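In keeping with the milestone schedule agreed at the kick-off meeting, the structural modelling team has produced records for the first pair of proteins. Each record is given below as a sequence line and a structure-token line. The laboratory manager (R.T.) confirmed that both were archived under the project's standard naming scheme.
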Amino acid sequence: MAMKNTHKLVLSAVIAALSAGASADNHKFEVHADFGRTFFEEPLEDANTWGLGFGFVLNENWTLDAVASRYSTETQTGGIDADGTQYRLDALYHINTESLWRPYVAFGVGDQEIEWDNDESHRDTLLNLGAGVKRNLGGNWEFRTDVRAFNSLDNEYTDLALNAGISYLFGGSPAPVKAAPAPAPEPEKDSDGDGVLDSKDQCPGTPKTHKVDAVGCSLKLTETVSIDLKITFDTAKAIIKPEFEGEVSKLATFMNQYADTVVTVEGHTDSQGSDAYNQKLSQSRADSVKAALITKYGISADRVKAIGYGEAKPVADNASASGREQNRRVVGQVSTAVTKTETK
């Protein structure tokens, strides 16, 4: 009778397994075949066991497991053959982990019938407690192994069993089909190579050597440039000495470079001589420099002003020879604001 029930369970499990499939992390049912070894406390010899089970998944942690198993053995004394059949209902609590191995603890209750060769039999109600681990093998297949202790409520003995088996998982919703990934967008271009993408570049074609702002336009730097003129003259003379020709030349070069500039050259004298004489001499000195800029270096006349101040603006003490030499001078200054493009 027990063997007939086992055959029915096997047939039902096979039909269920073939009817549907599910992914390992999305299933509702599982069928497993187990093989193991039972170590009897007494009076039976240890025996190999096999069994079939059907599991119903409650949630990601809990599964209810109905199991039928068989074994054949003999008594430790007398050598009487015995066939044992177990039916039990277990609860498995799975411990979630990030690894492929998923441990669990199990407990349950069941019925065991042992049939002897002499046509006698007896039944036990068994409580079991154990721990095991599962590992997904890919697809719908899973490996499982556990160790169980079975305690008889009727005859007060405890047996130990080691089991290993293969499970087939099924009955869940089909695994979602992943949509084809959207084509990667084409990378944006930076056509002029200034470091700003074309979509943001408001100044296309900027030279690569220019520093640019956030919208790709060249950065401008405005600064003031200037040049000073300072030459001295011999006593009572208005002739530019050869050693100061370079100073006049540098002033002319600056003014040619910056065409919007205008210079005022100021002539001065020391305190020797009358005021009227010194005024005339200072003007002659200023006019001498103006004439050099115009005739020798091509500066337009309307860009040069010449003013004589006589002895009215000394820069040193006229009581000494060195002080008077410093006062016999022509000075001038030119400055302008220049905007430059910043480069890398």
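The second protein of the pair:
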Amino acid sequence: MPRSMFRGRRGIALAGVAALGLLVGCGGSSKNSAADAAKLCADPGVSADTLKFGLVYPDTGTTNATLLPFRAGVDARIGTENARGGVNGRHLTYAWADDQNRPEQNLVVVRNLVNEEQDFGIVQLAASDDTSSWLQNQGIPAVAA
């Protein structure tokens, strides 16, 4: 696979993480104390000092070898943002899930990340139509390539 394809996927991952971080709308400004921010943040995955999202990509399956840079790109972007102080003072963390590049598995792992892991939003390479509809109906911010 051409090197430019890796840069494209990594760029999508980086943009996705950045976009998800910008969706955090509660508290966190310099005018609010940590206690005020905590009161304003009732969303799962959002606390006064942390923003946790879900990452879905095929770690196994037919495409896993070509997508290794995707997770590395996400980790690099998170590291850079956290070194700058995070998003509105919140450090980014994530839980990841393997959808095995199977549309029917995509919805299963996304539901788990939202319901069990209590993630604020989802970053993924691709979403099935069912997953996109479910996330929209739940009001969960999501970014897909």
